[in-house]
Amino acid sequence: MGIQYFYNFCLAQVDDTDLNSDILSAVRKSYFSDFERIRDKITYDSEGVSLLYDYCIERGKPLQWTVKRPDGTVVQEVLPSDNGKYYLCCYQEDKLFKRLLFSKFHTLLKAEYMDENGAVCRSVEPRKIQGGLCLLYKDNALSEPVALFAAPEVLEKPVREELTTSFTDYTAIASTDDGVVWFLSDAQLSRYRQLADTLRTGIARSIDKSYVDHVAPLYEKINAKDFNIKRNLSASLDIADAKPFIAPVVPNEPIEEIDLTDNGFTEISDKEDFDGFQPEKPAEDQPEKGAVPDKQIMADGAVYSYYGELDDNDNRSGYGRTVTDLGRTAYEGTYHNDKRSGKGAYYYMDGTLCYSGDWSENVRHGVGVGISAKDGSMHIGKWVNNKPEGNGVRVAADGNVKFVCKELSDGSTALMNYLENDTVVITKYDKNGTRLSEKIISLNDE
What we know:
Radius of gyration: 25 Å
Distance between the termini: 39 Å
Number of strands: 28
């Protein structure tokens, strides 16, 4: 799914805020996870100084946010803008240093940095362009705006760790619902990829060792959480107890498209706002006109309709389909004693497929195909108690194989991660998920 919400921005060489421990990012992340009201007053030590945070964020109301030193000096505060928008102002040495512009829906629209005279000298804001998302960076020292793109994800741990410490040539960094992300210009992006390839080559030639230094279930190694059926659904796996999916309220304004082939941004309008992304809504899967449900299920004021076989106790048993109050299929397949059992397909509440395969007692168990709500990747293989485990293949949304997992005859498991630059990381685990050995192989070696 990619980035949907930005929590905070920083510019390299200008802003040294640690976004990994940023309180503003943490509070906003919590709010956007369930859109519930958050109110608190806390004291936080930063570089030997105690700061008092007093904040309240809730739907439909302006943000309340103040940060003060023990002597009462204001470090951060909220000031109103037009049309319900507001600024979160940050001060350094009693001068306005940075301000973040938010919409009335609390989505982050822009970050602006001030010069010594209090005038805006730099800014960064999200924009949709052909092929994805970028940050538009403006600097008074530059003749035109620059498009910044998210640094590609690096899966192999040793390469990622080395990049984190050695690569500092990024323009902006953002705290998002997809983690802390670097944003790079085209030239920086090229240097980033070259360095990553160089590191992969060096590591592939040098690493060939066995060790035991980490204990964790195998499914954590293969990111089973990306296939969590709860991601876009309610907190319950039982449709009888499910809550209806309610999309966050965001404005229905178009997001300006930028034509990068024109090699410029001369037609970019400062009046256009970025208020978040809206997922495309699939056509509703309506039952046949006039069809009468064989059973209706009430859950938190929502009505779910079931079309299919029932047993003598009026429980769903046999083949059937359960439909949400929006008319979209939630599950179609076999039931036993009112629970998903056997073969069936389960859908996210936006109508997209979540999982198709074997079920047991309402959990994915057996062989099936799961589709990640996070990045569109697929996992084909064995599932145990709702998680991919054992034999399986992970395929990215673009069709590239990400890894193959193979259960061996002695109960151990081999995990083969296919990386860029034609290298493979082969890791072996025992039956308890303890890592036994690991090595990187270049497929280009003769």
